[in-house]
Amino acid sequence: MSNQTVSGNPYTRGIAEFVSGLEYDAIPAEVRDRIKLLMLDAFGCGIYGADLEWSRILQERLASLDTTSTCGVWGTSHKLSAPHAALVNGSQVQGFELDDMHRHGVLHTGCLVLPALVSVAEVRPGMSGREFLTAAVAGYEIGPRVGICMGAEHIAQGWHAGATVGVFASAAAAARGLKLDADKTVHALGIAGTQSSGLMAAQFGSMVKRMHAGRASQSGLYGAQLADAGFTGIVNVFESEYGGFCTTFSRSSDRFNLSELTNDFGSVWQTMGVRLKFYSCVGSTHSTLDAISELREAHPFKPDDVEKIIVHCSQVTLDHVGWKYVPQGFTAAQLNLSYCVATLLLDGAVFVDQFTEDKLADPARMALAARVTAVHDPAISAKGSKFRQMVNVEIHLKDGRTLRRTLEVSRRKETFASASEVVKKFENLAAHVLPKAQVEQLRDAMLDLENLPDAAQLARLLCKK
């Protein structure tokens, strides 16, 4: 395959044709209903994220550098340029480990798609709610497909998929929002892809991990807007044997599967594979937390009763969350298995109230976390990427009992939350920042999105008046 010929891009072209040709009426009703709930959840996460320390740093510094006042920063009265608003809003959605997750695609979606798409709606008023929903589906479909193509090995070798894969989710949504044709959408994907980057070492205590999603959303927005203006990108961004996305971000060609990019378009909807978080921590810990909750419900015990806990897991999970906990800020706590297990046992919950400064180095929490060990189970790793979050949990109690539980995946990742649960989570998070009446208006606008005349109304409801 020549790296220079446009004919060598069947997968990039296939994605572009799906995105540009997607119509509201072609989206099944269950997908339309689901994505409204997914977007509502993401907006709640983004609004809640407005008051976090790292969000405020981004807001204030970018406001001092950027005097443009086109697009709103959610949960605030600030306005920035469209790309900077996408950067901040995406960072806020992913800012406290509360947002959605596509397990097989190893990807958060709303934090990538919505900041770019809302910016498009603000810059080009008149986008109907139906068009907004359709563009969002384009992004929610493409992002996970790229993640599935790359497989779990992508994150295992140190890339943060939300930052690398994420640019394509954003580009697809923004391109559809701008109504780009297939040719320009090819270029949007190619411009976004060459901006792709993000290192997993960010999980060990830095604020920059929070920014990965925002940067990816911004890159996708740049891709679509520049392609709209006639700027050209890498036309075979996925297929190129030298310097293409897949070959560059994988150790070898057998680590990715290009056919997953376009497989079953129109019959399999990846949007339906997106699940929501009800733990305020990284998704790779959730199956362990569920297993421990189920064991404690069946065999009640107290934190002081625990001698040790051993979590047998895949190599990917071990590398991602199984490292020894050292207090280095909220990021390290929310991405560490031992800390999250100790928190669940002590507090009975792992949500926003469990991550406060006074808890990060709490002696009791530290001592309990030290009794939690993650170990690699080759048999789990051998099952492949779809089982990367499978765990065998052993709780050794001081009275001599050993409790065991195996879960292939968190219960929340098997079954989607009820609409009432999603709404309750949204209202809980958004009410930390916005007035109750405005929260209710945004809720109602999202749940009736197909009848909204102008999606720019969402942007107004997302911000402080």
SSE topology:
Blueprint: H1 10-21, H2 29-48, H3 53-65, E1 71-72, E2 79-80, H4 82-93, E3 101-102, H5 110-123, H6 129-150, H7 153-156, H8 161-164, H9 166-177, H10 182-193, H11 208-228, H12 245-248, E4 274-275, H13 286-298, E5 306-313, H14 315-321, H15 330-334, H16 337-347, H17 357-360, H18 363-369, E6 372-376, H19 378-381, E7 391-397, E8 402-407, H20 411-414, H21 419-430, H22 436-447, H23 456-462
Helix pairs in contact: 1-10, 2-4, 2-6, 2-21, 2-22, 3-4, 4-5, 4-11, 5-6, 5-9, 5-11, 6-9, 9-10, 9-11, 10-11, 13-16, 16-18, 21-22
Brief summary of the model shown:
The protein is an alpha+beta fold and 465 residues long. The chain has helices at 10-21, 29-48, 53-65, 82-93, 110-123, 129-150, 153-156, 161-164, 166-177, 182-193, 208-228, 245-248, 286-298, 315-321, 330-334, 337-347, 357-360, 363-369, 378-381, 411-414, 419-430, 436-447, 456-462; strands at 71-72, 79-80, 101-102, 274-275, 306-313, 372-376, 391-397, 402-407. The protein folds into 2 domains: 6-276 and 429-462, 2-methylcitrate dehydratase PrpD; 283-411, 60s Ribosomal Protein L30, Chain: A.
